[in-house]
Amino acid sequence: MKGKVIHRGLLILGTIIIQMGLGTIYTWSLFNQPLVNKFNWELSSVAITFSITSFSLAFATLFAGRLQEKWGIRKLIALSGFILGLGLILTSQVSSLLMLYLLAGMVVGFADGTAYITSLSNLIKWFPNRKGLISGVSVSAYGLGSLIFKYINGALIDSVGISQTFFYWGIIVMIMVVGGSFLLKEAVIVETAINKESYDYKRDYTVKEMLATKEVYLLFIMFFTACMSGLYLISIVKDIGVQLAGLNVAVAANAVAMIAIFNTAGRLILGSLSDKVSRLKVIASTFSITAIAVLTLSFIKLDYGVFFICVAAIAFCFGGNITVFPAIVGDFFGLKNHSKNYGIVYQGFGLGALAGSFIAALLGGFKPTFIVIGILCILSLIIALFIKPPAYSKRKNDVGDISKSK
């Protein structure tokens, strides 16, 4: 028993190290201005790099499950860590936007997304009765990596310059992800399990079977809304503080740190809570709070207190949503094909990252965009209140599985 506890402890430790290394890509905003200063590129052109990274990350999740089946979790994570680190190291030599997009965008994003979803899903499979808590630990480590490396990469940029920072960053991340992979072990999934919520049994859906259900599309709408609300806020929070709340730049910049803190807190608290109460009730609550917060930002005259309360609320709920949705996908469609199934739903992340900025450009500002997000949150709240796990066919093997479980 003691050896089993130690073994699972090493699995958690390895996943935490990997996720912290992967989360460092969210320090990208530190690199925009130094790259502009060095190469005289347009800021908007440089900033597009992170959008490419985010899309590549989400796109990779479509293929990660199949690659894991072919190579195994250790080999896949180690290879992803090597490619991720190499992509950053080679970025230190770029002198054109095209190469920046290819290396720091496509290569880094694809490697990061592959390792992210497979290490997360593998850890959830090891703790099927604590999916929410374990998901919270994993994605919190991802957020913690971005918070810690905000200071590490910032210090490196100041001391060795932008190009050499990419080099050292790549080496550090490669060591973290490849090193953490040696602590992982492939999870073995039992085909069926008793579910404590609104249905008596479940089976593991293939991607094709999942896509034949209406529930996956409803979950996608909810996840897309959750990601758009959080990612749009993260991208423009300092500007909101200055333009809507009348704060000076230094005070408004504090909101960036606040988002990181409350985002991480939401991941841990709501992830753990979702193991004790209905996950859909947790999600319904987060959409309610987010809707109130974004509509407050749209219609209420902002001051220091109201601004930071709204920002904290949205960040907290976004962190919780990112944590709880992997567990919901496991509840609805089983754990055996979790990497592939969640990879489909996870495309809402990439689309959500783009949608906020696109709507803002189309409608002309923060307030109308927040109104759209508020409406989508209300729609998602209604879905969360009424959605049920998919109906299961009474096939002969399912009947056999039920009889075995009794």
Can you walk me through this structure?
With 406 residues, the protein is mainly α. The protein folds into two domains: 2-181, Growth Hormone, Chain: A (Up-down Bundle); 193-386, MFS general substrate transporter like domains (Growth Hormone, Chain: A), CATH 1.20.1250.20. It has helices spanning 2-23, 29-39, 43-71, 73-91, 97-126, 131-160, 162-181, 207-211, 215-243, 249-273, 279-299, 304-333, 338-345, 347-363, 366-386, 396-405, and strands spanning 193-194, 201-202. α9 crosses α14 (347-363). The radius of gyration is 21 Å and the shape is globular. Residues 191-201 and 392-406 have low confidence and may be disordered.
In short:
With 406 residues, the chain is mostly helical. It has 16 helices and 2 strands.
Any descriptors?
406 residues; Growth Hormone, Chain: A; 2 strands; mainly alpha; single chain; two-stranded antiparallel ribbon
Mean pLDDT value: 87
Q: Could you name the ranges where pLDDT drops below 50 across 5 or more consecutive residues?
A: 191-201, 392-406
Shape: globular
Order of helices and strands: HHHHHHHEEHHHHHHHHH
Head-to-tail CA distance between termini:
26 Å
Please give the structural blueprint.
Blueprint: H1 2-23, H2 29-39, H3 43-71, H4 73-91, H5 97-126, H6 131-160, H7 162-181, E1 193-194, E2 201-202, H8 207-211, H9 215-243, H10 249-273, H11 279-299, H12 304-333, H13 338-345, H14 347-363, H15 366-386, H16 396-405
Antiparallel strand pairs: 1-2
Helix pairs in contact: 1-5, 1-6, 1-7, 2-3, 3-4, 3-5, 3-13, 3-14, 4-5, 4-7, 5-6, 5-13, 6-7, 6-10, 6-12, 9-10, 9-12, 9-14, 9-15, 10-12, 11-12, 11-15, 12-13, 14-15
